[in-house]
Amino acid sequence: MARSFSEREKENIRKSLIDICKQSWTQYGYKKTSVDELCKQVGISKGAFYLFFESKEALFCEVLCSVQREICKMAMAAMEKEKGKSGVASALKLIYREYDKNSFLYGSDTADYTILMNKVSEEQAKEMERAGELSKKLFLCHPTLKFRVDANMAISVIYSLIMNIKNKDILPQNHLEVFDFMTDHLIDDLYD
């Protein structure tokens, strides 16, 4: 007979699965992260895993979407706390540092990510896409600032700036310092 979990236990187990999956995805990638290992670390059976997530892909979708939502929430808070261009710069720096902690956020061009995307349902793929669009909307809809350049150009510059994280290991200078420098100097060219 399967063990039943209290609501509190369910909440804690679900959160633990998400946290451990996030760590494993960052360290090993999607393919090398196994449900068996996640379950062992959380202390549940593989059968119990399916009480929380319908599949490995559902868990990964939840991890990606929850991380994206959390990053956007933190960036929005930074922009509300610090108004104007400096708030946008602070939000960008925060986003970049979160990407640095979670390499799966910028690995969409890897074989590992392709394997995941080939296995997720159409609805999960759409949900992941919507979560990825959150930060774009964050910068497009700033209440007090207007772009000095075409909106598509500005968003492309912001995206390119963040995606420079892929070059972090080959830069002769600390990549965080480089990102901060570029952000501080580009922000005036992007916004009025």
Broad structural category: mainly alpha
Helix content: over 70%
Number of strands: 0
Task: Bin the strand percentage.
Answer: under 5%
- Give unreliable regions as ranges: none
CATH topology of the largest domain: Tetracycline Repressor, domain 2
- How far from one another are the termini? 65 Å
- Order of H and E elements: HHHHHHHHH
Instruction: Tell me what the CATH architecture of the largest domain is.
Output: Orthogonal Bundle
Question: Radius of gyration over alpha carbons?
Answer: 19 Å
Write down the CATH class of the largest domain: Mainly Alpha
Domain HTH tetR-type: 11-71
GO molecular function: DNA binding
Organism: Faecalicatena orotica
Protein name: TetR family transcriptional regulator
Characterize the structure shown.
With about 190 residues, the protein is mostly helical. It folds into two domains: about 1-55, Orthogonal Bundle (Arc Repressor Mutant, subunit A); about 65-190, Orthogonal Bundle (Tetracycline Repressor, domain 2), CATH 1.10.357. Helix content is about 70%, strand content about 0%. It has nine helices and no strands. Helix 4 (about 55-80) packs antiparallel against helix 5 (about 85-100). It is elongated and about 60 Å long.
